[in-house]
Amino acid sequence: MVIYFGADHRGFELKNHLQEYLRNQGYQTADMGATRLDAADDYPTYASAVAKKISLDPEQSRGVLVCGSGSGVDIVANKFPSVRSVLAISPDQVYAARKDDNVNVLSLAADFTDAATAEKILQVFMATVFSGEARYRRRLEQISKIESEN
To answer: What is the rounded (10 degree) CA torsion for 98, 102, 106, 109?
Structure first.
């Protein structure tokens, strides 16, 4: 499984930290940018690059996006078919999102999430398995139908 990373200038430092954190645990990562700090860059560029990758293989890949509020990258990611992004607020919330909603993209707010908390959230995101319960599968099918109709 490849974990794709993307961040703008406000999320640049946290993205690099988390990518190294996962590499040190043996995960394969891919950096979709920004690859250098540029105060004039825009988050849609990097969020869409990650979301495109996840959309191509939503069950076997994951994404991690970071911007200042986390909201911008989350909004962009959720525009892509089969991408289910969550704006993380706590490890417990991310656990529920993975287990119940099978989210495949983690969006983080660099301005409000310190590195230690982000590591905990990321660890939960990577370790938690989708429960596959009938009610959750049914809801994901409903979401897929909405995507295909629009």
So the answer is: -60
